[in-house]
Amino acid sequence: MSLLPWLLVALGLVLLLAAWAVWHRGRRISRCIAQLLALPADMHPLRWPDRARPVLQQAGIAGLHWQGQWFGDAVQGQWGEPPAPNWPSQALEAGPDCQILLRWADVARTDETRGLALAVVDVFAQTWLSRMRERTQAVAVALAQRAHVQLYWQHDMRNLAQWVGLLAEEFGAATPEQLPRLAQRLQRQAPLALARAQKLLQATQAPELQAPGVDVASKDCVTATDVPKTDVRTVLRNAAELAGLSMEVELDDAVPGAGLQSALLVSDAVAQALERALDNIFSNIARDPVARHTAQPLRCLCAVHQGMLQGQLHTPALSIPWPRRAFEPLKSPTGSGMGLYQARRSLRDVGGDLQAHAVQEGVQFGLTVPLASGPGRQEI
Q1: Which residues, in sequence order, are bridge partners of residue 370?
Q2: pTM of the shown model
Q3: N or C: which end of the chain has fewer CB within 10 A?
Q4: What's the pLDDT tens digit per position in 189-240?
């Protein structure tokens, strides 16, 4: 019986040593996980296994092998012991273009040690998968932005093509007496059409795609006073002129200073968005047989409220009734009907808006765009 206390003490020491060993391994594993998470976040995903090698070896991983597909290319690599058929494996799938099969070997001699090593491998694999998904998601976002911008480009090119077709139709049907008048109009419209075409060419040749409505003023190197500005009235008149329509721009008499010819300045990004919206609106009006041959001009009544230009654009009577849900895209069976949707989207992308409703004498469009900040803006 005298040996029992010593046996209990010995058993306690053994348990204490075992607990210390588990705690020591757990602390080592915690350090390994912390080191994995501390690796550079901007590192290319395919460099991840090699950069994580010292940490994995410290955790008891004797070898690593990976192979799979990376955006259509076959990739593989390994370090440590040569791969064996009995190695455990894990599939990492970050979409159809990025799939990696990961295999590893450990030197653990006990289930406990092996479990701790697998915890590090699991963190390594999940972190690698997360970085792979970040890359694939970035590609998906870039492709979506490219498709978004190209959708605008396609409609802008369609508007230019419609202008060419309308002009050819008028010249083809003109009498000799009407040709001088059409030639004079073409002389006025040609510089505007050339400017639109040059903008499209510059956009397609740009090194990086920029979504419509992104203001260069948002870049740190450009101040608000350095941003080029355009008079809204110039945008309105040029868009109408290019569509073969006449335009009257008026200032609201209820606004103080409306009688002054103050500049209604907007940034170039806002001007381009407004230009795109007006092209879509005016191209529809120019194709309408009644509005096209009427002598009644378009009227736009402009006012300023809290730094926003608010314009009421009145069209002449149209031959076709104003449709319900006119801004709904792809509403027609032919898949067309993107113009008004894109017109509204263009203005909303720069902080503005577009509304429309039928009135007795045609359609009234409500245009809202932010005025340019800085000394160039005047409240009227």
Answers
A1: 308
A2: 0.52
A3: N
A4: 777 777 777 777 776 665 444 444 444 333 333 344 445 688 888 889 888 8
Helices H / strands E in the chain, number of each:
9, 11
Q: Identify the domain containing residue 264 by its residue range.
A: 228-380
- Among residues 371, 342, 372, the alpha carbon closest in space to that of 354 is found at 342
Domain membership of residue 199 (yes or no) is: no
Which of 139, 168, 193 terminates a domain? The answer is 139
Measured CA to CA, the distance from residue 355 to residue 366 in angstroms comes to 5
- Give the distance from CA 4 to its chain's centroid: 76
Total domain count, the chain:
2
194 domain-assigned = no
pLDDT averaged over every residue in the chain: 77
- Answer yes or no: are the C-beta atoms of 206 and 212 closer than 8 Å: no
Kindly give, in sequence order, each residue whose CB lies less than 8 Å from that of residue 88, ignoring residues fewer than 6 positions away: 103, 104
Lowest average pLDDT, out of 17-21, 136-140, 276-280, goes to: 17-21
326 burial (CB, 10 Å; 0-12 / 13-18 / 19+) is middle
Distance CA 336, CA 158 (A): 12
Same domain, 98 and 237: no
127 lies in the same domain as 237 = no
Q: Is residue 150 part of a domain?
A: no
Residue 141 tokens read as 């976002």
Residues 129, 235, single domain; the answer is no
Going by the DSSP 8-state scheme, the letter that residue 107 receives in this structure is -
Determine how many CB atoms are found less than 10 A away from the CB of residue 216: 14
Determine, yes or no, domain membership for 348.
yes
Query: Are 234 and 134 in a shared domain?
Result: no
For residues 284 and 215, the model is more confident at 284
